[in-house]
Design a protein that fits this description.
heterodimer, A: 415 residues, B: 7 helices
Amino acid sequence: MIGDSTIKEADVDTNRISRRRVLAAGAAGLVGAAAAPAAQPQDPTRVQGPPGRDVGARSPFEKPVRTAFSPARTATFTPLQDLDGIITPADLHFERHHAGVPAIDPQQYSLLVHGMVDRPTVFTLTDLKRFPGTSMIRFIECSGNGGRAYRLTTPTADLTPQQTDGLTSTSEWTGVRLATLLREVGASPKARWLLAEGMDAAVMTRSVPMSIATDDALVAYGQNGEALRPEQGYPVRLMLPGVEGNASVKWLRRIEVADQPFMTREETSKYTDPLPDGTARMFSLVMDAKSIITEPAFPDRLDGHGWREIRGLAWSGRGRITRVEVSVDGGRQWRDAHLDEPVLSKCHTRFRLPWEWTGQEAVLMSRATDETGYVQPTTAELLKVRGPNTQYHFNNIREWLVAADGVVRLKGGGA
Amino acid sequence: MTRQVRHLVGMGIACVASVALAAQAPAPARYGLGRPATPEDIRARDIDVMPDGRGLPAGSGTVRDGATVYAATCAACHGAKGEGGSADRLVGRNEGDSFAHATNPKLIRTVGSYWPYATTLFDYTARAMPFQRPGTLTPEETYGLVAYLLFLNGIVTEDAVMDATSLPKVVMPARDKFVTDDRTGGKRVK
């Protein structure tokens, strides 16, 4: 949650812009020279390479990193500008935690399901894995993602896609459907909510409506083909597709079925949306459609005129992305971008559009539409319905200003 | 029809039947996995408190009790009187209890100005505070802290005693400010 007072702009860790993009920006040596990769032999076809290894590693020439904005590192951001396709490598999936990452022995782990159920039950990890399983590729986005772009009042800012919107990632999640567990314990037909509770030092809790719990919610133990990463909830987490990340409680230790919401600290004092009419929206769980161009973007500097590809990500918590339009003239004209297959429900979708840059100043924007017909709003449209001081759900259109010298910066003009 | 043909036809029907059975085999009502939770299993983890007071433990605490605990365990991060520090500001009301948070960045978000339920304060303090040793406060200490913070926020009087009966009856200033989510997708941006 970006609205935390612990996350301050002054702490922006500018040394963590990855090497590839620094090279692209024509500033090699400022940052990238720190860790010299293994030297390439003069002719790799004349030298035997090293043998296989137990665990692979990235090419020493590739150094994508998560970045944090506060010394406490309660959140780290995915380097969106360094990634292609839709899957986030597990070690680059964004993190957000309120009390650090707990160490949990899977042998000691258990999940208690109780409350309005016929059979209160304790499940071990082995038990959970014996249930029929399923895998689904879905995004998780922190609902505070994008606050920097929403509040940007200066004409431009030196902010990367990672720094504005890196609190979203996509994985293939594997687990047992929550609906299966609720049936196993005999959840009461009168139940309307459940409490999900973590076993971190925040003992994180969120209330989840039964309509979401029995739809596509997953009690997940797998991520991209392996066990969950500790930062993502090892050994077991809740995964609520399309819902603000905070509600997908990690390190899940307990589910209590009930007839009403529990009104935890997170869902009352934090993750609510004040509205201009003097009320505040509660349980605003679903993430509306959003997109961001990840390339070109700051810190890119276009290295000459001619053709290149505009690339980015689009996603919606309400289903599939049906269309992404791209404008290169600040929103006057829009063209349909190509959507890479697969286009999955509640999942990052990769869009692409070839673009010939002629050396003129340009403003690049992307606008996503989802299968409900919802169109990603402009900053002005979102400001009107939410107000300048809202804290979450910043899905307004992002703009990148390309100057005549090729320098790309985030364009402001918001709250 | 020869006996052999009848046999083949019979087999065919049997095969069709078994294929149909395999395709339509319903999931069992239960898989029989896990073990029954004992009352001890539930007691060990069931620490939540609901707005109607369900889950509140026995015990009680006064404003004076809470002031002592607060000074010793909370003030270092939340400020001497809840004015905030390295951690959230806890105390303060906005003029006229204004709830124009969306449009007025000067409004504060504190227990007194934003939290809709007093029970949440007990639940969160008991489960996650103090930050460096979460979950170690006794019910008496927690009731006292809640009483003290509600007093500092001008919600209860200085002689208030908080317990499982009195706490759910506290009406917070922001109690009726919250609305359900009316976003449903579609054309309209909300």
